[in-house]
Amino acid sequence: MTRAPEQWKAIPSAPHWFASDWGRIKRELTLEPMPNGGVKELSVAPTYGHLDTKKRRFKHTVIGKTRWVAPLVCEAFYGPKPTQRHECMHVDEDSLNDKPINLAWGTRSQNQMSPKVQGWRRERHRGASNNLAKLTDDKVREMRALNLPYAVIARMFGVSQPTASAAIRGETWGHVK
Prior knowledge:
3-stranded antiparallel sheet
C-alpha cells in the first residue's frame, strides 16, 4: 500500500516554513546574503522534529525559537489560534501523532474534557487507589451505616467533617455501594 503524496501548506507565523499532512515541517530553500559577499543556502529537510522525551512531543527550532511541531502543523492547516487562550489539542491523545487530522484548536478546559483524559483521571484517583486517601471502601461503608452526626463520624475516622459528609452522601466515594 502506498501513501498519498505529502501535501505542504505554509505556516502563517513562520515565513519560509511549511507543514505537511504527514505531521512534518520543513524550511523552503532561501538564499541569504553573507556579510562579506556571497550567499548562504538556508533550508531544512522535511522532519518530524526532535523528540522531547520528558514531554513526549516533537519540537524544532523555527526562526531562532524552539517550538512544538503540533501547533505549527495545526496553524498551517486550520489557521492561527482563534484566541490567545487556545492551544493545540491532539484528538486521539497521542502527542506523537502530529498529523492535521489529529489536531484541533481548543481551550485548556476543552483539552482536559477529552474522554480519554477524563477516564484516566477517574481511574487513577478513585477511592483507596489515591495514595492521599485516608479512607477505604470498607470504612466508607461503615461510616454510611452509622446514624450519628457528621462531626462525630469524622472524629471517629480521623477525617474532616466535610470529608465525612461528602463520603456519606456519595458526593465522593460514589463507586462504593
